[in-house]
Backbone:
């Protein structure tokens, strides 16, 4: 009997060892890129965006304005927190709006902080998750008349999440049709493709999606910011100063 038990234990140990060996071959080495904000702001060539954030805001030019930032998990941190900070400094009401919470399918095998995921969205720096931001409302809880402008930040997978959400796409399309401001930066302009609002419009976006914008009928320029009617777009975090000021000026004038 003891011999059989020992043999079974040995077989189990060998199975575990084999599984661990396979897992090691399926896994990559732990090394991730990062996007530390201090390093970004102090990088050569980024003086304009650094000065934008470190110059005191003295006037409440957007007092009374209401801005909805539409985002989901995987947004580029500075592309959300930067404009949100600036617009709030100017006196605007800024709400973070997310799609309705939906847990990932069990067979995805993801390990997420479930309670946090119900009320927050996950920030990334480049490709690395770094933190969470609390959501004010979900997309099913807002109406076009609630806001004067919407803003969509980019990120590695936030725009893909949003463009797949039918309620988000419908809201963006209706908001654009109302004549109110729709703004997006970096990869977020792909959400505008799904909302079918860029055909014949002048705009820009991150370099590797500019061909997608052209294929959807957009007139694309590789410049820091493009304003066309009630649409404002930019390419990446280095453009945040130009982008945020363009949004500010549009809201002052309209």
Residues:
């Amino acid at each position: 009997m003891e011999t059989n038990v020992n043999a079974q234990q040995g077989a189990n140990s060998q199975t575990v060892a084999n599984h661990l060996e396979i897992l090691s071959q399926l896994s990559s080495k732990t090394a991730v890129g990062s996007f530390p904000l201090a390093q970004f702001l102090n990088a050569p060539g980024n003086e304009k965006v650094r000065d934008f954030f470190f110059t005191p805001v003295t006037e409440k030019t957007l007092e009374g304005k209401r801005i909805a930032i539409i985002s989901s998990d995987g947004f580029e941190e500075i592309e959300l927190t930067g404009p949100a900070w600036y617009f709030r400094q100017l006196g605007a009401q800024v709400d973070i709006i997310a799609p309705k919470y939906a847990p990932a399918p069990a067979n995805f095998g993801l390990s997420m902080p479930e309670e946090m995921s119900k009320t927050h969205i996950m920030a990334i720096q480049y490709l690395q998750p770094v933190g969470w931001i609390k959501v004010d409302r979900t997309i099913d809880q807002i109406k076009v008349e609630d806001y004067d402008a919407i803003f969509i930040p980019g990120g590695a997978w936030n725009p893909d999440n949003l463009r797949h959400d039918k309620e988000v796409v419908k809201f963006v399309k209706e908001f654009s049709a109302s004549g109110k401001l729709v703004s997006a930066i970096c990869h977020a302009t792909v959400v505008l493709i799904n909302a079918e609002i860029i055909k014949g419009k002048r705009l820009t976006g991150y370099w590797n999606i500019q061909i997608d914008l052209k294929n959807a009928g957009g007139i694309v320029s590789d410049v820091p910011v493009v304003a066309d009617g009630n649409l404002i777009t930019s390419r990446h975090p280095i453009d945040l100063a130009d982008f945020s000021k363009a949004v500010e000026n549009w809201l002052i004038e309209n």
Observations:
- The chain has a mean pLDDT of 90.
